[in-house]
Please model this.
Amino acid sequence: MSCQKVRKYLFAFADSQLSVQSNCEVLDHLKVCAAGSAVVDEHQAVRAALVSSAEKIEAPAGIDRRVRLAIQTGKAIQHREARRSLLNDNGFLRVVALAACITLAVLVAWQFAYQDEAGAWRGGGSGLAALSPAAETTELVVKRHKQGDVLCERGEHQDAGLPDSLNGLALALGREYDGELAALAPDLSDYGFTFDSANFCRLENGEGPIAAHVVYVNTSYGTRFSIFSLPKWSLINDSEDGIEPTIENPFIQTHDQCNQMTVLGWHAREMSFVCCGSVGAGILRSMAQDIGVAMGEPGRYETLDDAFTTLGQP
Amino acid sequence: MVFRLWEAERALGRSGEPMSAKISRQFEDVVLCHLDLVYRMAMKLSGDPHEAEDLVQETFLRAHKAFARFELREYGAKPWLLRILHNVFYTRCGRAGKAPSLLEDLSLDDIAAELEQRPLRSFTPGDVDWDQFDEELKTAVLSLSPEYRSVIVLWALGDLSYKEIAKVLGCALGTVMSRLYRARQHLGDALGGYASDRRFGVKPETER
Model:
């Protein structure tokens, strides 16, 4: 093969793109052609340098989570948006630590400033202005949510007698309520939340009905989201008109002191469902609507027996 | 009405595994595994870590949306994924829908003739400390036009055949070879200048 002919194929030869026969022909020529060999050597050296340079590039921590979140939500989070929020991975631990400190500070303040739990929610003993009924309700829910957050951080929130995943959880929670399954344990992965833990609590400072408390955690930001299910809870009714909230027209309040914390609640049949988390009111409404749609499919099962039979439960 | 049991049944699906979970698992196995490669290529294309991450997110988002229509053929998921990255990159460059601003494609004979008349600046690999060249290499790649940058990055990092590169770029095989030649030429010129400045013993071919 002549120099002129070989020259055409030098790059392809260097990149192993030639057929076996052509490869051998070029190789035979290069054994006696220093110029050609130099071109090949250089071509391969540049490629090796580019590969070496690229191997030094490390994907930023957390990019895997952000990509998964983008896929889950159907929307890429542009980096300038992420920078404006507290969502870069270097700040993640600071955010968690800050949230824990705030939570502890709030709990300490409640402990020492409000000696009489029964009276202090009305603000009477502390000298602070009295809260509106809606704000009081929000305080109760947020307090329980934050207590759950602290327990979750320590890995102590999960009730040992309950499933540690969403599978079968609603059924297990519902067994606490006579004759009617009513606890919510929906799949919130579309919103970037995965199941964390489940337990029971009382929202009214050790009094009132038992609530099933299911906690979710945001896979990217580490913030938590609570769903409380409890027998019909009048504290989310409109105090002035007495109107009972529904999924279409829910109780929704932003916490007075913590504007990132939103509480949303509604009645369904003889139960109430209350959501709480660092989620914008609009997104919270959307999440609740999705849950409400799932709740509202009529006639799926008429009785528990029907449901158990269908799913093969004893 | 037991609405949550309905939720549980929907979550489980009739075959015991939800379709969305099955597709997600396939997507993870076949596509998401290329995350590091896509990020490195995005960095080489954009030169900016924030822009690179935006490219990566957009690429995988589009890939996920299109995954149901994807068929794993002889080229595999990587060329398909890199094609998406390439299209996202082009869109962000504002090149989408426009004709490439390149010289007309060269034939193999043209390339051979050019090599004869204007030899590539060549290094004696042993004389060059490529670690010292890292920043210059990055700058040189970023100085290329988007079309040349794409082909260089695909060629160097993608571990793709010329045919696969052609599929990614949506052009003919000859175009790939032509662009690669031109890109190598520009890259060699840029790096040759740096090497000369640093007295790394660049030897033009004529001196050999």
